[in-house]
Amino acid sequence: MTDSNPTQSSSARRSQEPLVAPTPEPLSFSEASALADRVVENVERVIVGQREAIEDVLIALLGRGHVLIEDVPGVGKTMLARSIARSIDCSFRRVQFTPDLLPSDITGANVFNQRTREFEFQPGPVFANVVLGDEINRAPPKAQSALLEAMEETQVTVDGTTHPLPRPFTVIATQNAVEPSRTYELPIAELDRFMKKIHLGYPEEAAEIEVLDRVVGRHPIEGLEPVAEAEEIRRARESVAAVTVKEPIRTYATRLAAHTREHATLGVSPRGTLALLRAAQGRALLSGREYVTPDDVQREARTVMDHRIVTEEGDDGSLVGRALETVPIP
Known about the structure:
The chain is of the alpha/beta class and about 325 residues long.
């Protein structure tokens, strides 16, 4: 039998073969917890008064998820993402989403090499450990959809060839909550791929004064140094995955999701239930525990579930609140 595509290069055929990276040895729970504390404290050198938001982003990173930060302009969304990335010694790329952005501007494209007379894949900015999608809702759905496969399967497919992404891989996207006439609404399928959606809000007076004091001269992010290696993050991810989630906790998360399905046009998907448990595992690790409690699930429920729910009249998060009040803890 001959090759169905004789013009395809051997290197392109090899890239279609599944690449399974060896599973790294997990850090001890104490080491992983200390690593998380170092990253949070390092980011707080730049981001003032937003410890909860910092922890939310870190939980998504350690829980093999992605995070969407939505708020008004100028409250530090992009700076938070940059600070997290600079705290880890890993690859970082930024994509500025604009109306004329093409999917190939994100994933990369096959380019003809005049010297070898073959097409070679030129990877796009999505090939990084931490990818910042800045103002993601300013690009049309076609460009936004370029992230779907990457966020779900940690790979991209271009012209029929699959290319694995580096590990760890996390997308931190930002979007403005204003100017709706100049932006595109994110598809539900893409929203569902974000583990968390968070809001920063305006800082309190004392925090804003401290921000001004820090940045009047040299911005603190310019001197921010990494406090963790990419390999440590990979190992910490394995530590989070090893956090114990007993059967009653799994039942509780399932019933919370079921409550949203019964009272909404579109409720939390099974992917959302899994994201809730992974976020709860990350919260437990940050709290120095090797097991998940109902409090961990409740604390993570809003940031994980709110953006996955669609109701006829729109939802302000009250449905998740009612689920937390109504569904009994096993």
